[in-house]
Specification:
Layout: H1 3-19, H2 24-35, H3 44-55, H4 72-87, H5 98-103, H6 108-119, H7 127-135, H8 149-164
Helix pairs in contact: 1-2, 1-3, 3-4
The structure holds iron/sulfur cluster.
Length: 168
């Protein structure tokens, strides 16, 4: 196991805690990950993302025009991804994902490919799942094709703009 990534996580967390601004409820959850590092040993990318986000945490992220700080919500989103990934090997949206249920009717090859590769595999890479994690299920367009990069980009940009203007 690469213990270094967890040591870095602990160091950055301790530094942020000393500022007195880092939310205690996030602190407890992240300490739980560090204390159970073995369970997260294969989640290197997400742990590194988490470390970077904590390092750039800003209590007022999103308030200014040019800020690059990371909000508590963004960190929470990464924690959710870490815990979802730890729990299972298939997407939790399968029972209610419109795309999974309907969109493939006339595309059997695409259906097999996406279901095998994403829905029952690397669902954390699915663009629909990412939007769900970042913006909530209610903001997930029913017909959005997760492999349509252009459309996905437009939807994410639109949701970010809405979030900035506090409509989300
Ligand atoms: S298409 Fe994406 S969001 Fe829908 S069930 Fe599959 S992995 Fe989940």
């Amino acid at each position: 196991m690469d213990v270094k990534i967890f040591e870095e996580l602990r160091t950055v967390l301790t530094q942020q805690n000393q500022t007195g601004e880092f939310p205690s409820w996030l602190m407890d959850e992240i300490m739980g990950i560090i204390d159970n590092a073995e369970q997260y040993k294969n989640k290197k990318l997400l742990i590194e993302t988490l470390t970077s986000q904590i390092g750039n945490f800003d209590l007022y992220a999103g308030a200014g025009c040019f800020d690059t700080g990371v909000s508590a919500e963004a960190i929470q989103s990464t924690l959710r991804q870490l815990n979802l990934e730890k729990e299972g090997g298939q997407c939790e949206l399968i029972p209610c994902c419109n795309f999974f249920a309907d969109k493939f009717r006339h595309m059997p090859k695409t259906e097999t490919y996406i279901k095998k590769r994403l829905c029952f595999g690397d669902y954390l890479s699915c663009n629909r799942f990412k939007i769900y994690v970042d913006f909530g299920k209610e903001n997930l367009p029913p017909d959005l094709d997760p492999t349509d990069a252009e459309e996905v980009k437009k939807v994410i940009q639109c949701l970010r703009n809405k979030k900035r203007s506090n409509q989300l």
